[in-house]
Amino acid sequence: MGTMVAPSLLAANFLNLERDIEMLNRSEADWIHLDIMDGVFVPNISFGFPVIDLLKKATQKPLDVHLMIVQPEKFINEIAATGATYMNVHYEACIHLHRVVQEIRKKGMKPVVTLNPHTPVSVLEDILPDLDMVLLMSVNPGFGGQQFIEHSVRKTAMLKEMILRQQTSTLIEVDGGINLETGKRLVDAGADVLVAGSFVFSSEHPEETIHQLKML
Ligand code: DX5
Ligand code: ZN
Questions:
Q1: How far are the Cα atoms of 98, 133, 160 from residue 169, in angstroms, in the given order?
Q2: Ligand 1 pocket, 64 CB below 6 A?
Q3: pLDDT tens across 145-160, in order?
Q4: Quick one: which of 6, 61, 71, 191 could link to 186 by a disulfide (CB 3.0–4.6 Å)?
Q5: Cβ of 196 less than 6 Å from ligand 1
Q6: Is the pTM of this model over 0.95?
Q7: Which ipTM did the prediction report?
Q8: What share of the chain is helix, strand, coil (3-state, %, to 5)?
C-alpha cells in the first residue's frame, strides 16, 4: 500500500515492448523507470529518445528517467520534451549539481539525484531540500540482473535519518537487485520507491509480482 513500485523497462522484451507496456498499464506500477546509458558513464549502451517518445504515447504512467550518462545537463530540454516526470542525474556526473537541479525544475520536471554505491549520502546534506527524490544505487549502474549490495540497507537508513533531521519531504528510491526479500528490508529502512527490472520481467506473473512489491 505505501510502497511505490517503478518497474525498469531495461528487462522488458524489446521485440514485444507493446505487450510489456500493456502489462505495466494494467498493473499497479506507479511509474515506469527508464535506464538511459551512454557507454561512457557506464560500460553499456541502452536506448534513447525514440523509445522514450513512443513509450510516452503508449502509457499514462509517469516516467522516471534515470540518466547514466556524462553531462546530463546537455539533455534537460530533450528530456522535458518527452513529458518525463522525474529526471534522475548522477551526483558523480555533475560538477555543478545545484545548477542542474534548478534547471530540471525550471523545465517543469522533478529533480532526482542518484548516488553510486561508493558515494556516501553525506554529500547530499546541502542539496537535500532542493530534491524531490534521491535514488540510491544498490548495484553498480550499467546492467540489470546484478546482485544486491548489502550496504544499501544501512545507506537507506542513513538517508532516512538525514531527511527526518532536515524535515524535508524527499522520497527515497532504491535501484538494483531488488526482490521481495531485499525490497522488504529496504522498505523497513525507509525506502519509498522500489525499482525492479529482472525480478518483475522474469517472473511468471509480472502483474502479481508488482502487486507483491507494493504490499511490502
Ligand atoms: C542498472 C539500472 C537498473 C536496472 C535494475 O544500471 O539502473 O534500473 O535495470 O535491474 P534489476 O532490478 O534487474 O537489478
Ligand atoms: Zn535505473
A1: 18, 8, 10
A2: no
A3: 999 999 999 999 999 9
A4: 191
A5: yes
A6: yes
A7: 0.98
A8: 45, 20, 35
